[in-house]
Amino acid sequence: MRDTDNNREKLSRRRYAQLVAGSSAAALAGCPESGSEGTETEPSTSESDTDESTTSDGDSTPDPSNRMTDTVRVFTLNTPDTFDWNPHTPQDNSTGDLFMSELHGMSNSHDTSKRLHGDDATFDAPWVQGQDEISLVTWIKDWDVEPPYDLWNTHDDRSTFWNGEPNDADTRYKYDKVRYFVEGNKFQEGQIHRAEAESQWRYHFWHARAEVEGADDDPANEPLLADEAAATDGDVPLPQEWSDPWLREFDAAGTQERYNEVISNVRGDRVSLERLAENGWGTGPYELRSTDDIGSDRAILRIRDEDAESPHPHREHINIPKLQLQFGNEDREQTLANNGAIDVHAGSITPNNTWNPESLPDHVDNITTYLRPNGGDSWWFNWNNPHLGRLWVRRALVTAIDWNTVGANGWGDQRSVPLEHDTGMLDAHSESTFSEEFLNSLHSWPKGPDVETANEYMKRAGYTKNGNIWVDPDGNDFQLDVLITSNIEDWIGAGQTIRQELRNFGVDATFTQQDWGTWSNNLDTFNNEGPNFDTSIHWYNQPTRFGYYKSQAAWWDNASLLGGDPNGTGSDRRAVDPGDEFTIKGEVVQAHLPTDAGSIEAPDQAGQQPDLEGVTDYEEVDMAQVVEDIRRPTDSEEELQNLFRTCARYYNYYLPKFAFHQYTYGEWANVRDFDWPGEDDDALDWERSFNITDTVTLGGIAQASYDEEMDR
Predict the structure, then answer these.
(1) Domain span at residue 145?
(2) Whole-model pTM?
């Protein structure tokens, strides 16, 4: 029986590593064939594609013909006729590529500081018949750094493409060199490709060190370099067979015009599923062996066993011969899931959720549930709005809104968990970065409404009520828009709730929906002169603690402490400069900050740049300098920690934006036809990228069951 009690009460307070959520299914082209949804309600059975394996004591695995299934079915938001592995295309259609590639490494889904590479990726495996433990191949086998510039990755020499070519450092170098050229660097002063294949399997890359005229000097401290070197996710390389011709064309391009033509040609070079199959260009334990395995809404990948051109080490413990990628949009995804035609999928089954116990079949259940620390959302403020530039107003709005209701109406009560700490990080990174004493010293902004306090804050901002609407000191009604993209259903429910909460509080609030491109362009301050919104909802996630505390103009970098440079152009706009007064979004850079952590003392009618002289003890900080220094070399852990604390205090005091919750997350799966790790096993605690779906399938953690006595 599926247990649907309140999942939040069961979750560990540990948090985990990475969310880079996909933007939307609306960008997908194509539809499944008529009648294809949900026709597969039972898995195919017992094709004897794998050899029997033997344990060290001579015990053999059960007869493969007795497997309950020979296929594990997953879903990807894409279509076979639009799939494109090429990462340089204007629109990313590569979704699904992770199932056809080697695991880079794995990060812990509860504790982001833990990562597995190489020999460390070994698990006791009592649920795997015939094996005491399983060892997973990770493309990055090991890493090391040498501050202040240099990083190395050692790649596993067992990693090959389907066609047998080595997936080595030379391949990575050439693939990355194509990216270097596509990004327009060939004729740019100060630009060189900062990487080399030091040997066939050892890749060396480094930060800029002013090695050529016009180049930046970008030294970094050891913790930051280590975070970069130990990455568990990244672009999946294409082989040298793809890179070499493009590199020859780039090298031969002698004019900017010809160079631009080659860039355009690369961006138009579609790497389709058929091309992958014909050339053997994928990696990992499953392969597209033939174009006959590609249908209009699915593709069949086969284990790289002894019948493959290049067998994969995971064949020793994977007992599922086929991996079926099912393609389509969100409607088809829901239909297949409801009909039992998806065997493992990211997310958690909770009431009033997309994945809920009322619609999914009984043989599907959660196999792991956890709090996702770098999966959350935030309310963005444009400080250039005359109301939002006032400190007490931002505080009043955050205090007046019922964030529990916002989360419940947007994501569902059991998916949305309010943040405990207001540091500008999500809770996992807060708890791994700061001491409990420091976290307890910060001001805690309420997640339930405190309208009485919010009213006091508005009065301190100089506002009065005219009927039901707040009026600013200049006599202007408080009008505010909540801008949302129509592509994210969760945000629509949350945004409508924020709009209503604002109206209840006395703000003349409106709610605007835009398509993805229009919305993102209005948030984008990297390519535009400034932000074109009042408030908006955006994801809030960073892979490491360093990701939060920086300056960034790009709209997609959603959890940076500061916006970009108001005075820059092009790439100069990306980050605000030390000495600047404000960011392009109006956030204060030259700031007074109370000496006592957690103090919110400020003068009445405080504007963008409050003067705390005579109000409270304070220090003057240049936040642009702080976020630069936090990356710079240092031998003092206390010095580095103090910089992190300064950033947390700035966020806690000024509220440049407001991160209000994180997600419950997990994985649900077919527990009838597959065996899974138990509660005491940690194999379900590791992911490469957005979730553990590809880890459990490619890693052989999902095992076809042999239990014929189970009620089917």
Answers:
(1) 7-32+46-363+671-704
(2) 0.83
